[in-house]
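Before a colleague's protein record goes any further, I have to sign it off. What it holds is a sequence and that sequence's fold in token form. My question to you is simply how this chain folds and whether the tokens agree. Thanks in advance; the entry in question is below:
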Amino acid sequence: MASTNDTPAKKSNKPKKDASQQQDQLLTYHGKPLVRCGNIIYYGKPEDKYVVTFRLEDQEPLGDLQISKRVIIELKTNEGKHSQLIRQAERSGLYKAFDIGMFWLEQALENG
């Protein structure tokens, strides 16, 4: 005889978050949001003219983490599907990549 579950499904009482609440919860660095999508980290404000992407390559395990040995940095125009590549470089490790990516973005935003 098959058993039936007579208990009702639990409903979440958590209020849904609107876009402004989600924007407030983004990880930021020096006032600019960091968003990770798969192996790509996007750095920069959506309304700015330029954005930097960090493509994480050659990952190796370190305990329960994945560490990227090689990172490709790209400075792009922030025009959605029509964005253009301005500069590209490769660095070993995220720290070195982030250092140059931040410099490129600040320089590009200052020079317009």
